[in-house]
Amino acid sequence: EVGQRVFGGEHASLALNHVGIARCLKKEGQLLDAVRAYTTAWELWQKKDPQECLAEMPEVPNKERFDQIKQQVQKELAELILFIEEAKKQAGKGEGTGAPSGSEAA
Question: 33, 31, 36, 39: which is closest to 100 by C-alpha?
Fold first, then answer.
């Protein structure tokens, strides 16, 4: 929230915050919220040229590292979506083992 007020809602460095939040939410079992946070990060980066993103993220030293971070985020998001989809299938079969609880399975 502070970063958004300081830099505005479209600043590339906010994406790194969203990734950290997504990872925490995932660990806490808040899977749908984690997907939203990962997606927000990805969308912020996609709206800008890589050089503009790098200029806004001094903690990322170069384009190669930025590409690695984006690939990791994409992988984590894909794995999370696959897990949620599998949990939905299992819940539909009445085999709720491993499925997220509450609204997370929706």
Answer: 31
Give 33-72 pLDDT, tens digit per residue.
999 999 999 999 999 999 999 999 999 999 999 999 999 9
**pLDDT score recorded for residue 94:** 73
* Total Cβ atoms within 10 A of residue 79: 11
CA distance 28 to 55: 32
From CA 26, how far away is CA 71, in angstroms rounded? 18
Provide the 3-class DSSP secondary structure of residue 97: coil
Would you call 23 exposed, middle or buried from its count of C-beta atoms within 10 A (0-12, 13-18, 19+)? middle
Q: Residue 96 has which token pair?
A: 């709720």
When pLDDT is cut at 50, 70 and 90, the band that residue 11 belongs to is confident
Which backbone phi and psi does 47 adopt, to 5 degrees?
A: -75, -10
The letter for the amino acid at 29 is G
